[in-house]
């Protein structure tokens, strides 16, 4: 299996409380496995507050809905042994 790398990493975002924010990370291969999103070292799951999806096979997205002050911190995207943070 080819080593999946990060082609385009996360970008820092500034948002207002109550708004949604979307982070994008592009990887080198489609159907990448071993993907993980974290907020302040806590793994995120796809639910009503966090929407995790893949666009066009290579662009992985995380949307945090109606952010609050508690959502301040580092977002980490990991694929295999590669990471990107914002």
Automatic annotation (TrEMBL):
Residue ranges constituting the Ig-like domain according to the UniProt record: 2-86
Keywords tagged on the record: Cytoplasm, Disulfide bond, Phosphoprotein
Transmembrane segments: none
Main location: cytoplasm
Gene3D superfamilies: Immunoglobulins
GO cellular component terms given for this protein: cytoplasm
Compartment(s): Cytoplasm
UniProt-listed PANTHER family: OBSCURIN, SI:DKEY-31G6.6
Protein known as: OBSCN protein
Native organism: Dromas ardeola
Classification lineage: Eukaryota, Metazoa, Chordata, Craniata, Vertebrata
Gene (UniProt): Obscn_2
């Amino acid at each position: 299996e080819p080593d999946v790398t990060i082609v385009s990493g996360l970008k820092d975002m500034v948002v207002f409380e109550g708004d949604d924010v979307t982070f994008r990370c592009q990887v080198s291969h489609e159907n990448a496995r071993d993907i993980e999103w974290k907020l302040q070292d806590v793994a995120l799951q796809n639910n009503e507050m966090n929407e995790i999806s893949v666009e066009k096979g290579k662009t992985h997205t995380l949307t945090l809905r109606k952010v609050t002050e508690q959502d301040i911190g580092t977002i980490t995207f990991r694929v295999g042994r590669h990471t990107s943070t914002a």
